[in-house]
Specification:
By secondary structure, this protein is an alpha+beta fold. The protein has five helices and three strands, in the order αββααβαα. 47% of the residues lie in helices and 17% in strands. It has a three-stranded antiparallel sheet with strand order 2-1-3. It is flat and about 50 Å long.
Length: 136
């Protein structure tokens, strides 16, 4: 069967529709992640409604030299190389039991707990201090 075969295209669109339906029924895990520089111990904490997507995006941006949010992280990536870094999921937010839950707010709270715990600022990490901490 060649790629010009209408049956091949129909099978491909059926598969795509099936993948879309699966995605809608089971959304990707959401939660908090860390990028850890094993060479110097610094970490970057982040969160996302799509953990696998966020980790792939950060890794891609660092690999291509396009990570603009954390320039010090990009600089260390260039200096130490990819093998010096690990990408880890710290916490997964369970799917909401009730409709209408504010997932972004729940994620923000979970991330702030991890920021408080790891304090990835200054010499310890790549994150910038939240406004309420710097205002104290």
């Amino acid at each position: 069967m060649s790629s010009n075969d209408p049956g091949a295209r129909r099978g491909s669109s059926t598969r795509r529709a099936e993948l879309k339906q699966n995605y809608k029924e089971k959304p990707p895990p959401m939660g908090v992640f860390v990028v850890r520089n094993r060479a110097n111990g610094k970490v970057m904490v982040g969160s996302s409604l799509n953990l696998p997507g966020a980790l792939n995006r950060v890794r891609f941006e660092l690999t291509t030299g396009m990570h603009r949010t954390y320039p010090a992280l990009q600089e260390d990536w260039q200096h130490h190389g990819a093998d010096a870094f690990s990408f880890e999921v710290l916490d997964v937010l369970p799917p909401p039991e009730e409709p209408g839950a504010d997932l972004k707010e729940e994620l923000r709270v979970l991330e702030s707990l991890w920021l408080e715990r790891l304090r990835p600022y200054g010499e310890a990490g790549y994150n910038t201090l939240p406004d309420e901490v710097t205002a104290r």
